[in-house]
């Protein structure tokens, strides 16, 4: 196992160990959700509150390791596997951090949950931006739209912008969140709008890529009869009996033959194969007759009974 994988496994074990050690000291109803003002507005029983987050962390870590194995483009994921495993480590660390904050609150420690969560969320968005910049075309990781999945060039341009957008969102989340912890909904709205902007941007990049070939001007065919290179320009050219080369007819864009170019004469096809067949048949007949002449004819055998009858008559 790699160092990153050992670190992920250690964090998961640490989360279960913390829940086990704190289980007896937790209240019957554990605080599990806070509003923008940092006030508790959700509870669950002690067993769920102690072990739900570690179980979720294990499930998501397993899912993240499974996705590259079933992706048809898993070879592309292998090209940025270090960044991807770093994301798994960072995400598990985020969940374990949130879990220990929850345990600490329910054990009697007092702090502003919003201010404690803001830096972690901001750093998570920053790393998501780094991951987008390093990603390659795949079906599970990154900004997946019909247009990024249809064109590798559109994928690269969209994720190059996504890297800057999510890093900026992470920095704004940290700066604004620390100053105004009650502005979590505003920050979440900024992230949603930024994600929708990337979706629309990928469409326009794809449309621009599709329109690019149509802008190229196609040059019309140029006749080379006057330059003496008609044999190269028109490979269907034939020859008249006199030996002079005659160019084949060329059609212009309207379907009409180009003027000034005489059509190539059509030479009658030779019937050599038919004569060869007749000669072959006549030769086979002659050989059969010769074989029949060489074989001597056998004299017919006379029956013994007829000879005896002739002797008696005499």
Describe this structure in words.
By secondary structure, the chain is mainly alpha-helical. Among the domains are: 1-109, no CATH class; 112-211, no CATH class. Helix content is 61%, strand content 5%. Strand 1 and strand 2 form a beta hairpin. It starts with a helix and ends with a helix.
Helix and strand arrangement:
Layout: H1 3-22, E1 29-34, E2 40-45, H2 46-70, H3 74-78, H4 81-106, H5 113-134, H6 152-179, H7 184-211, H8 230-233, E3 238-239, E4 245-246, H9 272-294, H10 304-313
Antiparallel strand pairs: 1-2, 3-4
Low-confidence stretches: 215-221, 223-261, 274-279, 302-314
Number of distinct helices: 10
Oligomer state of the chains in this structure: single chain
Radius of gyration: 45 Å
Helix/strand/pairing category: mainly alpha
Note the main sheet.
2 strands, antiparallel
**Termini gap:** 124 Å
Tell me the overall shape: globular
Order of helices and strands: HEEHHHHHHHEEHH
Provide a brief overview of the structure:
This protein has 314 residues and is mainly alpha-helical.
Keywords:
two-stranded antiparallel ribbon, globular, single chain, disordered C terminus, 314 residues, 61% helix, mainly alpha
């Amino acid at each position: 196992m790699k160092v990153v994988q050992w670190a992920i496994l250690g964090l998961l074990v640490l989360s279960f160990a913390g829940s086990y050690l704190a289980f007896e000291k937790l209240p019957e109803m554990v605080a599990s959700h806070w509003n923008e003002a940092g006030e508790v507005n959700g509870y669950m029983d002690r067993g769920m509150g102690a072990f739900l987050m570690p179980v979720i962390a294990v499930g998501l870590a397993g899912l993240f390791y499974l996705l590259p194995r079933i992706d048809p483009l898993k070879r592309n994921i292998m090209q940025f596997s270090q960044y991807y495993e770093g994301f798994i480590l960072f995400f598990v660390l985020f969940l374990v951090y949130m879990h220990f904050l929850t345990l600490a609150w329910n054990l009697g420690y007092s702090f502003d949950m919003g201010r404690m969560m803001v830096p972690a969320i901001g750093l998570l968005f920053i790393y998501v931006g780094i991951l987008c910049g390093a990603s390659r075309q795949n079906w599970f990781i990154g900004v997946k739209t019909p247009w990024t999945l249809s064109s590798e060039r559109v994928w690269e341009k969209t994720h190059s912008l996504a890297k800057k957008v999510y890093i900026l969102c992470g920095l704004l989340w940290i700066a604004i969140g620390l100053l105004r912890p009650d502005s979590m909904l505003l920050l979440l709205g900024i992230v949603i709008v930024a994600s929708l902007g990337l979706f629309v941007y990928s469409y326009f990049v794809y449309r621009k890529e599709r329109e690019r070939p149509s802008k190229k001007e196609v040059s019309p065919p140029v006749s080379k009869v006057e330059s003496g290179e008609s044999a190269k320009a028109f490979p269907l050219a034939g020859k008249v009996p006199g030996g002079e080369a005659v160019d084949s007819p060329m059609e212009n864009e309207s379907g009409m033959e180009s003027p000034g170019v005489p059509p190539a004469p059509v030479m009658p096809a030779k019937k050599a194969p038919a004569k060869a067949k007749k000669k072959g048949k006549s030769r086979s007949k002659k050989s059969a007759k010769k074989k029949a002449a060489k074989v001597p004819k056998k004299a017919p055998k006379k029956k013994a009974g007829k000879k005896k009858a002739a002797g008696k008559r005499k």
